[in-house]
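Bit of a strange request maybe. I'm writing a small parser for structure token strings and I need a real example to test against, not something I typed by hand. Could someone generate the tokens for this chain?
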Amino acid sequence: MPRAIGQLVRLEELALGGNRIERLPGFLLDLHRLNSLDLYGNEITELPHEFESLQGLTDLDLGGNRLTGLPGSIGECSGLTRLVLSGNSLNRIPEEIGALKRLTHLNLSRNDLGRFPNAVVELENLTHLDLGGNRIRAIPADIRRLTRLTHLNLSGNRLRSLPDEIGELRETVTINLQGNRLTDLPPSLARATSLRTLAVEDNDLSPELKAASTQGTKSVLTYLREQAIASVAVREAKLVVIGEGAVGKSSLLAALRGEAFVEQRPLTHGLEVGPVNLADALGRPLTLNAWDFGGQSTNRPVHQLFFTSWAVYVIAWNPRSGAAQGFVEYWVNLVRRRVGAEARIHIVATHADAHDHLGDLDRTRLQRKADSEIAGFHRIDSKTGRGIAELASAIATTAADLQHLERRLPARWRAVMEELAEGGESHLAIDDYLGRTRSHGLDDDSALTLARVATELGHWCYFPDAKGLDELVVLKGDWLSRAISLALNDPVTRDREGLVSHDRLRRVWDDPRRPEHERYPRRVHSALIELMHEFEIAYPVRDSYDGPTSLITQLVSTVEPDLEDWTRYDPGLPEQSYVIEFRDASDRPAKPEGLMFRLIARFHRFALQRGDLGRGVHWASGVVLDDGNHGRALVRIENDRLSVTVKAAYPTYLCKLLADEICNHLPEWKGLTRVTRVPCGAVCAAAGSPKAGSMLFDLEALQSFKAEGHVGAACNKCNQMVPLDALIGEFGAIAGARSESEDGIVADIQARLDSLRELVDEQGSLTRAHVSTDLRRAMTEADTRVEELIEMGFRLLADDGMHGPRLFTVTQDDSGPRIKGLAQQRIRVILHCEHSRRPVHLLDGDPDKGVYTFDMDREWLTKARPWINFTARMLRLGGELVPAGLRLELASSDWKGIENEVGLAASAVKELASNASDLAAWKDADADLGGEAQFDELSRGRIHRLRALVEQQDPDFAGLVRVRSGDRFRWVHKDFADRYR
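Reply from user aminoacidic:
Good idea to test on real output. This should exercise your parser:
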């Protein structure tokens, strides 16, 4: 053996990852003391059969290679506790691997396994099993033998069902089933008593299970527990009837129910819900829950909120008025864009006696545009009954083909829903609702989960996290939609372009001129107003002389106002623009119905002149937004495009914020896709082109182009070669990670903020005129960096944000033992607002608010370190560099108060770093998080444990409020909650 190799025989750890090794070096087989071998990210295609000579191995990482098989001799490495084989091309696992009885971690993700490796069930000490990203179709019942399993990843496979025995994994904390083909979950999962995270997104689950999953793991397990107690079989789906007003929708439904025809039937305002009982071609009964929507144009954006994939759609039109007057194509497009390719539409001509024809309906055009979605064309007459039987048969046939028509539901939930439907109440106080559910044997937790699931499915409305709504369960959608319809059609409110005092709304809802059953008692008015805010139909503005006031966005002016506030805003500032184009399933331009109204409500916290009674710069197709020091934006919809232009010292920040929120909003229109484009803009303008800005480049294509090494792209409109960096430089910052070091960013921004502090001392106060564009850019860049860190961390704990706060600092508590090596350490936990990033006790001026003390073991401190380090680093950037809440127009005394506040938070972080060695031999508190691989399930589990301890001491989490931010949740101080509503 060469002398150099001989010196390695005592080696215990060896890392050779990230090289181009194709074959395992022979000398490795002589390193008998080796216990950790890292070969990740090489090009190894096979292992030698002599591999068993490495008897001392406990940790082996062969991930990211090109292995297609394993030698049986790997089973002789009996000391292995961790084996990583992810990212190879393995299509089978040798049976000998079952001999690795000490193995606790096995990662076989991202291979080519077509079946569950039988040998795995022999690994009785296994705690972590990762089989994600394979082709596995079934899980064996013997999986129950893995009694010590705590984390199981089966995501990205082809599973259609799970064995009941999976519920016997009593120690399992996390099960990931995302991205499979599951249509149901075994009720036995509710018996997995340690289960805290059950990820089931991107499956073909029933509507009830999918609705429960949006509420989190606890709701899914509650549903399964109820199903395990008793379940009932149902055959039911949703029937949605839409069309213009007075075309006979309600009469059509009455005819399908076999009811007598009623002359001059009252118009439907809002919506009405009721069952229609039909039979399929085999004579088997099925129930359609029919939703009859009023045809008034002001109600349409509200109606879309109730559209779902599991439904049959009927579009009614009157041929005597013509297809144009019936807006048939409009309604078809509305359904297709909202629901997507899963929509099934019947187009029904009402008032069609024997001599009528189908008006001017262009069936050929409609079928060409939406062939797969249109299930049939029909002619009926509700008065004579002509065509009703044929229509009923056609609808039943379509419904019978819907996925999940037949399913089993928790029996007690079903009984509660039937009783409440028969009772006829439009709404119940929460205490009354819980009283009803207790009579059916439901505990309060199950009853509240039922209310949330029914809300997701559109049956009820219950919003426990919104003030005023947590005390009300709305059982009938028509009761709610009629109230909204009254507000939208109030002539006084329409004359004021949507501006309405809450006192006016109360008078509209409780108008004594209407029949008693159509009036709304004053006790529910506040909840109705909150519901309008929750649905983004309206948002609150500053109180007027009439008292509290809201703006109903659908009623804003259709005329573009004077844009002087935009054109004159700091004309020397840099600008950044992008365009989002919408396309339907046929790749034709399309516009999301009501998008701008929703955006005006969603972005109300940025509304220019928001404090001036809602008279901001907004109209039916655009809005001007202002984010203080972060700049101003003009958002418009024109020709099926949404354009965003930002003026700011550093426009990327506001561009990213708006782009994220818009893109998070667009999935509500399942039938639309989007393409983001950037204009040639200033580059071609500098060259004197008269067509500057008219060429739109596909942003994704440009980014791919740059990745291939290109430096420019040709502008066909301006005849210029435009540098890619000029086109996507700022968007590159949005899309990818920064390359600068943390220390470099910190030093640069700190220097510029020091200059800002000097200005305050010289001037005594600070105004926009005193602050250079460079300083404003520095402040915004720092905020951008902190937001990127927050989003990265919160993405790793996305599910956890539903259940409690995640932002806290951990420090050594001086009152506890500090003896090195002691098993227990006393720590001090400080909760922070996830918006302002300030400690709750500083925001409330109460030194004990959101501050907790616990005795924790050293193992907990070690495993929780990645998240603790992450929050420390984030708060250092966000706290020390850009004091939270910092804006212009600060007096010197205000600035000093903020500095003192930030200093307290920063000292907590430094204390953590100084005591780290005493706690558990940690790395520096400002070390990098290390990506998702380092932030594993062990760290998540420790955070869950800490949060549970905090919740035991303080169930209200120091008064923090859970709000939705895009597609995630944040826990913020009450003073900031309204910004997210």
